[in-house]
Design a protein that fits this description.
The chain is 26% helix and 26% strand. The chain contains ten helices and 18 strands. The strands form four sheets. Strands 3, 4, 5, 9, 10, 17 and 18 form a seven-stranded mixed beta sheet that branches. Strands 13-12-11-14-15-16 form a six-stranded parallel beta sheet, with helices on both faces. It has a three-stranded antiparallel beta sheet with strand order 6-7-8. Helix 10 links the parallel strand 17 and strand 18. The longest helix has 13 residues. The protein is globular and about 60 Å long.
């Protein structure tokens, strides 16, 4: 099969011939049709993001494809079924806290390296091998829309956070870091779940205004200044009432002060879900003990999403609750994988969807 291979950090992807994946027990082989290319892919492939992965590797965390072969434990999947391949692969021997990897992307911890070696190559290839439980049927799709369905990989991450925070219809949500890809996707999913009002925060006022224009009057833009007290007051004013939940997607460069500015706007009994990238000493939030305790505040971290989120999100898209045409799609054939990575880095807008098409060669 043809695949885009990373042989060394900082080197360009190289179109190579690799052996076809071999089906094992509890596995599915999928012919890949569409794989999302994140804006930060260049940082992963250069080593700048310090993701744990062994080289050489075919990168690419999941995507859309057709079932080529399935093991005997798959009782409903059929050859030719259109499916979503979930990149989050979990160990099967630790139910409460399984080690996990992102296929073709990173091992979450050193303990997950055996998984990374077993399911090593990702979706920037004509074929991929994944555990049976990582395949979700999509039903029939318009062939011209298959690329857009790669957006599931972006939408699933905030969906996991919104489910963890138990967002309810009519509630007021603050999306902190709404001008990033996951933050903007969180706005889309929260609207589909029935959020009554969403305060979308970020530094880029123009991007926030575009977000509100695209998604309507339930989205209130709030441009942040970096002054914690001033930003907290602005968020409260934009909420125009109690804030039920905060979903944090602030990037690595953000500070604890920026996290607190949103988190401390929640009402008594409110929830704060942390999914962003704040790192190092700047990640020490210093939230006040008495404020947390006396106001019954729930603060929790959430990495990715539970497995049940995948079919639920597919149902929401098929029902028309989430419109994938809201993404600006750019597609590249497999032999232009490096061009796709470079394009995604430059076109990093929150509604830009860059997709590699392993079913096509230029």
């Amino acid at each position: 099969m043809k695949a885009a291979v990373l042989n060394a950090f900082g080197a360009p992807l190289v179109l190579s011939d690799l052996p076809d994946p071999v089906l094992g027990s509890g596995e599915v082989i999928v012919d890949m049709l569409a794989a999302g290319v994140a804006s930060y892919t260049a940082g992963v492939l250069s080593g700048a993001r310090n993701y744990v992965l062994e080289l050489p590797i075919v990168p690419g965390p999941g995507g859309i494809g057709r079932v080529r072969a399935a093991g005997p434990d798959a009782t409903r999947l059929k050859v030719g079924d259109l499916v979503y391949c979930d990149a989050t692969i979990r160990a099967r021997d630790a139910v409460h806290a399984p080690d996990a990897i992102l296929l073709g992307w990173t091992a979450r911890t050193p303990a997950a390296m055996p998984l990374h070696r077993a399911y090593h190559h990702g979706s920037f290839a004509q074929r991929v091998r994944v555990p049976t439980e990582n395949v979700t049927p999509l039903g029939d799709l318009d062939p011209g829309e298959i690329g857009r369905w790669a957006a599931l990989g972006r939408l699933l991450v905030p969906f996991g956070g919104l489910l963890a925070g138990e967002l309810k219809a009519g509630e007021t949500l603050v999306v902190s870091g709404a001008t990033g890809g996951f933050g903007a996707a969180g706005v889309m999913v929260a609207l589909a779940m029935g959020a009554g009002r969403i305060v979308a925060t970020g530094r880029n006022a123009a991007s926030l205004a575009d977000l509100a224009r695209r998604h309507g009057p339930r989205v209130i833009p709030a441009a942040m200044t970096g002054d914690e007290a001033r930003d907290r007051a602005l968020i409260a004013a934009c909420a125009a009432g109690p804030v039920d939940m905060v979903l944090d997607f602030l990037p690595r460069e953000a500070t604890a002060s920026q996290v607190r500015a949103a988190a401390m706007t929640v009402r008594g009994g409110g929830r704060v879900v942390l999914m962003g990238g704040v790192r190092g000493e700047t990640g020490d939030l210093a939230l006040n003990y008495n404020w947390l305790m006396h106001n019954n505040i729930t603060v929790r971290g959430q990495w990715m999403y539970d497995r049940e989120a995948v079919p639920r999100l597919v149902q929401m898209v098929r029902a028309g609750l989430i419109d994938l045409t809201g993404f600006d799609l750019a597609e590249f054939p497999l032999d232009a994988a490096q061009e796709a990575v470079d394009f995604a880095a430059v076109h990093a807008g929150p509604h830009q969807l860059t997709v590699l098409r392993p079913d096509r060669l230029g």
